[in-house]
Design a protein that fits this description.
Elements: H1 6-22, H2 26-32, E1 33-41, E2 46-48, H3 49-57, E3 61-76, E4 79-92, E5 95-96, E6 101-111, E7 114-122
Parallel strand pairs: 1-7
Antiparallel strand pairs: 1-2, 3-4, 4-5, 4-6, 6-7
Length: about 130
């Protein structure tokens, strides 16, 4: 990322991730997500990379739409942390989540000349 500000590249990394989830692009996500990747949600649910990819591939995770909002980006050497707001319409295992703006936290590491997502914290809550 030499000579580049982290903000623009951060939005590109997030957009790639969200678009791959929306398109259920398991192969693309295998290249985007580090083997250590985990997601944690505000309702206490979580998944590791293999479970997430399997559920996405089976259609148990459906993202209909997303819009990435404001971001705060920090970087130190080969690590990138992005705190951001996203509005997303999605269901996980039949549970619909609110289609309203919610905070997220994503982390990336630089490996082999590319950025890999290592975690995603989702502070959205299921719709009631």
């Amino acid at each position: 990322m030499a000579g580049k500000r982290p903000g623009p590249q951060a939005k590109e990394l997030l957009t790639t991730f969200w678009q791959q989830v929306k398109e259920r692009d398991v192969k693309g996500l295998e290249d985007t997500l580090d083997p250590s990747w985990q997601v944690a949600r505000a309702d206490g649910t979580y998944m590791n990379r293999s479970v997430f990819l399997a559920k996405l591939g089976k259609g148990e995770i459906n993202l209909n739409d997303f819009k990435i909002g404001r971001m705060n980006v920090t970087r130190s050497d080969s690590s990138l942390v992005i705190r951001y707001m996203t509005r997303a319409a999605y269901t996980i295992k039949g549970i619909r989540y609110k289609d309203s703006s919610a905070p997220y936290l994503a982390t990336f590491i630089r490996k082999g000349g590319r950025w890999l997502m290592t975690s995603q914290a989702n502070f959205d809550i299921p719709a009631r």
